[in-house]
Amino acid sequence: MKPAKVVPDLVRGFKIGGTQTQSWVERDIILYALGVGMSRDPMDTKELSFTYENAENFKVLPTFGATIGSIGAVFEGLVSCPGMPNFNPMMLLHGEQKLEFFKPFPQRQRVTMTSEIADIADKIKGALVTFSSDVKDESGSIICRNTSKMFIRGIGGFGDKGKLQDSLPNVPQRPPCKVASDVTTPNQAILYRLSGDTNPLHIDPNMAAMGGFDRPILHGLCSFGIAGKAVLKEFCDYDVTKFKSIAVRFTRHVFPGETLLTEMWKEGNKVIFAQKTQEREGKMTTQGYVELNEDPQPKI
Question: Per the record, GO CC terms (predicted)?
């Protein structure tokens, strides 16, 4: 029988489903790149290197790593965890995401993943659950580490503030170094979901209504990919080896069709970014940073 409230000691450290496997090929890489808005201009040869398998320098967007694993596995872990109460899956929202890179993603790969619930914290109106997953190639070498934080509305009040105290850098109080504008398409979420996150909140109007939204919302990880793409273009000239890590906090939902403005500030070997929607009075939807593999540079 499920407990009436979260039991933190039974949740923290819970192993999810043993070792999982996943593989990808060029088609998956291209579908993901299109899902975050690559190659809107088909004559842009730099972006074509992410969407054309026969390009001279065909490569994988770093944020593709967020598609390794699935929201289904996360949900399965929450349901099977003995310390978690029953909850409405439409009350599950993506709170934060961090990706750490140890080597560039190959064009084709079969990987194994081991995942656990690393932490849980009471946020009064809900619970913030932290998942950690190591992704390894066939030789056993780690490719990337995924850390996801999911906010579950309605199950707070259990009194445990959590063990992990990660923090993101504050958004600088000065004009940004660069600003990227991405107009999402009305069917952006329908395309992005084909990369693995098939939560009906992003496609089914009835399910979106159950979650408190008047229409389906864009995946947080799609906004995450759009932000990563902006930093990759503006500060790395599309060199994927420059990414050491990327982290983001989702602060407000985005509707497909809205315009995302990604503001970026270079500070040392980090690019701090903040996204906002142009249509809804510029309210911030995400904030985060990319850590770069380069010598620290002065503030710009």
Answer: peroxisome
Q: Taking CA 93 as the corner, what is the angle to CA 162 and CA 116, rounded to the nearest 5 degrees?
A: 50
Active site residue 197: yes
Distance CA 202, CA 188 (A): 10
pLDDT at 164: 85
Per-residue pLDDT at 231 exceeds 60: yes
Classified by CATH at the fold level, domain 8-292 comes out as: Thiol Ester Dehydrase; Chain A (3.10.129)
Per-residue pLDDT band at 295 (split at 50, 70, 90): low
Tokens representing 4 are: 């009436």
The closest alpha carbon to 147, from 110, 194, 115, 104, belongs to 115
271, with CB counted inside 10 A (0-12, 13-18, 19+), is buried
Is pLDDT above 90 for 33? yes
142 is catalytic: no
In this prediction the pTM is 0.90
| pLDDT score, position 106 | 94
Say whether 69 is catalytic.
no
Residue appearing with tokens 């730099």: 46
Calpha distance 100→221 (Å, rounded) = 15
